[in-house]
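Worked Example 4.2. Read the sequence first, then its structure tokens.
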Amino acid sequence: MNLPTREALLNIEWLTRTRAAEGFQSLLEYARRGAETYGGPVTAVAEALQDLTWACPRPFLDSADLRHALAHALATGSWSSSPSGRHTLWSCFQWYWPALAAAKRAELPARHVPCVPPSLPDLAGLRLVAPLDRAWLAPHHSVWGCDVSPDGRYVLAASRGGHVAVWELESDALIASGRDGEEEVRDCAVTPDGRRVISVTSSGKVTIWNLPTMTVHGTVQAPSSAPAAAYILWRELQSPAPPALEGSPRRWRRFAIAPDGSRLAVAGWEAVHVWELEALELVTTLRFDHGLTPGVLAISFASRDRLVTLARRSPIPVVTWDLSSHQAIVRTTLEVPPVPGIQRALVTRDHRFFIAAGETATIVWRLDNASLVVVVPHGVSGQALAVSPDGTLAATCGGPDEVDGQRLAGVKVEVLRLWSLPELRPLQSWNLRDFG
């Protein structure tokens, strides 16, 4: 597959002809390679094409109205002069009507007002909205995990599209992007010595990368996750049924790195694998007995030979394991306030506090006496919870009930909030609409 010229990749007529002759997947591969080579506006085209794959069934993309689709995909967001405009990729699906059967197409106009798409921008003139210039992920969709290297030089992000990207903070430049062949990278983290990056996919593939080049050091496999049917059956057998700590079992991918960077623990449905990180040798497998709840909400090393797991149920079982004897040596529970949809939780590095976030609130407990510290009425979206290395700050990202004093009506707005720990006193907030 020869690399097209930059001019071709920025020409809508060439894009349309190539899609018709070779199919959408080939066009997407051309754009991805072009983004890695040319950058700039070619990246915008590659990102827009990648976003189409999340908005429309792939078989439809070979015959969808590509000009109409790109007009929507490039009308808002980071590459647009109107980042929060009303014409988004998700505001119209009429661009894939040509892919539908003729009989189905005949029914649609009677039920829908025909869409007048925005004007297709000059592709060669696309520029990132400040302050995001040069900070692109390569073709991606949805960042599900991120981290900062201990020396503050690099920022990493794991995406639903399967990339683990590395930016250099001093230059604001993307310097490497790793991809292990799978999509849905659920999380990533940098080892304490700053030499490696750990990422995990929803399938349980754990990849250890060299930082900053993102070459692969090795891979291991997480313990199996529960099939959805097994999780449903387990919940039905509980009496009374536990409150939902939500999220698909395939998304419950939790891992932890020992404080000295020597070991890696990866959780599954009924077990935790512990590996020597450098040699990638399995140290032990900790299996949950019938007294412990399957599914792990959070996992953390207290030391090289002590591991703490917090299970996914209410009240939350907290278990400290001795890795030498492979036994659970301390058990306690945390009472959970009525907060729906708890998906994300972390233990502070000093193991004094446990912080968890759901749809409507964020909660902090003390671990030494299993007591509740505080509940604040601001939840998170998905994986958006972080704690500073010194355990004094927390960050959450979620949708507010109102913006600028006005109630929201079906508008997705995310607010990033910075809190002090452990009392969750608000320090600062940013509306992500302001960043494109």
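Now turn to a second chain, presented in exactly the same format:
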Amino acid sequence: MTNLETVLEIEKIKEKIKFYTKTKIGAKKVDDLKPSKDFKYVSKELGKLKETIEVLSIYNDFPILSELDVYEEISYAKKGNVFNEVTLNAIKQEIQTTVDTIKYSLKIKEDLDYLNELFMSLKANEMLYNAISSAISPENTVKDSASKELSLIRKNIYSVNKYIHSSLNSIFSKYKDKLSGDNFVLRNGHYAIPVNSSYKSSIDGIVQDISDSGQTTFIEPKEILELENQLSVLRLKERDEINKILFALTTKVVKAGNELINNNEILGELDFLASKAKYAKEIDANIPVINNEHYFKLLNAKHPLIDKNICVGNDFILGKDKTLMIISGPNAGGKTIALKTIAICAYMIKLGLAIPANVDSEVCIFDNIFVDIGDSQSIENNLSTFSAHISNISVILQSITSSDLVVIDELCTGTDPKEGEALAVAIVKQLLKIKALSLVTSHYELLKKYGLTNKQILNASFIFNEKNVTPTFKILLGVSGKSYGFLIGKKFGLPGELIADAKKIYDNSFASEDDKKLHALDEKERYLATKDEKLKQRQESLAKLKDDLARREKEIRDKENKLKNQKIDKFDIFLNDKYNEINNIYNAFLKDKDIKKAEEKLDKINVKKKKNENITVGNYVTIKSLNISGKVASENGNKLRILTSDGFTLNATKDQCELIEAPKEAIKPTINADKYILGQKQVSSSLNLIGYRVDDALIALDKYLDDCVLKGLKEVKIIHGYGSGKLREGIHSFLKRRKNVDKYRIGSELDGGSGSTIVSLKWWMIF
């Protein structure tokens, strides 16, 4: 493993990928992963991986179960060896896996350039599969039916065994008083009876064994010696026949060797691709756009070996007119992780792996990647940290070209600061001449000032929370950073007078007007970059709110459509039932000619309609066909508009409705003055939660406040009443946690008293 792979911990990434492999070939391919700078090769590997990710996201995993290395087995057989039953069954399983994979490929409807090529190359050898299946049992034994000769031999073995058992039973009956056991046993491959040692001379035969105590002698009776000899001969014939069968099957396997090896290789490749796809899913990785322009744009990039749930994603853009990035900021603020993230992503692309960054990221394929991170060289070469650092950089400067990536952490530290600054600037100048894409981290003011004056350099810094004196691990592009040594020193106990003195010394270091102007420019850029970052965050919040609004409006439309469809379907059923009733009455009339009886039946059908004629605005009704209740909001002749308890408006006719008693609780929430329209839903400037359980009230309040913010309401009233005070306490506790709540207060007399709470909303959050 190279020093680069050691520093970037590439072996750990390989182990994580290998965890998902199911075949020896797949695991070996992971071990053999090597970086490539060939654009076509890398593009092809990433293309195969992209197709695999897409397929596995739609269909189940590839049906690959075999762990066989067919090439090794075929090579073994070609040396004159014969496969045993276990190996032959493994080869049969390999053929079955091939068949299953072919069937799997036929289910895929998507157009696949690379995977289809692999699938089409698989060949299922049905004849060989059947040959092995007919000869070898699932229990790894040769079947009787494997050959006629074996079948006959085993029948004879069965017959001889039967004769032996019969003879032994007779002997047991004859000598039962002289035996020390009640059954015969096998000793040294021969049948024997357990005889009391004091009677061993009474039984004619061959002694095969004696018990540890010496009290029992195991004798093979003379009566079965000939049968035993016959059995031994048959066993030898059986073994020879089995060897013939195994040899014949081995020969068939060798003849099909190239086809089997090809299948095995393809299955291993599919397993390899699947393991890379599964690892990509594990770390939320994607296939970026690949370019030939010596440019990269990593969006929301994360370190693959840090938990994705805690790792902060960052954007890194370099190339074209900017060829070098200087990253500054406080210690432990994320600078080293940022360098490793960029280098690892670049290396993973060369390995044909997906990277933990957004799908719209863009990368190039570097010829080489050079890193100087840490002081491992000092240990290996017995050099000081600075000496090892400079030695490594010297090798890098002699080796790099414009097609390479260079990553250097803490450039030229460990020596006299003034000399270190000068060396750092000189090295940066050399990197700019070579035009290799380079990233360096540094605290040096001289280097940061040089970055401000050179158009090829992109300054970057990590945001530091000055209030809490903690890093955010979020990078800002286009601005150099502070080290925040004074703040950190104060946090960890340095005296205030000492900090103040240090600040004076620092300020006096900006002696020239040019220094002061550059410092002021740096501060201005940092301020503007911070504002841009906040604006970006607000825009992202707005986009999220808009998406949420669109989702909620869609849910409402879907629910309305569902209700309408249900209404139509159920009303059609209702009409059909009435038609059938009337048709039955008509048929009965034709049969009985009884007009009076028919009229009575028709009156029964219309009786409900007559009752419903009195329905008017303000009544509570049930739409019979839908089993939905609500309040009549308006009427137009026979047509009614009904407001349901969950805020939906439905249309129905009077004959479709039935009068009901008004519910004890009115429809919630209560709609007061200052009404706004949100989609099809009205948003009020007040919400009445009297009568609600605390949990239910908070759910209603949460949704209500979202709707109010989206409509731009600045102030709303929450009516909770007096009662025990639990509802008010729950509401106030909830309001404290809401990000879009600016402040709140108990209602004044003008607001209706302390039974309400007035809430001021951060309406600007959505603009």
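Notes for the reader: The chain has a mean pLDDT of 81. The chain is about 50% helix and 15% strand.
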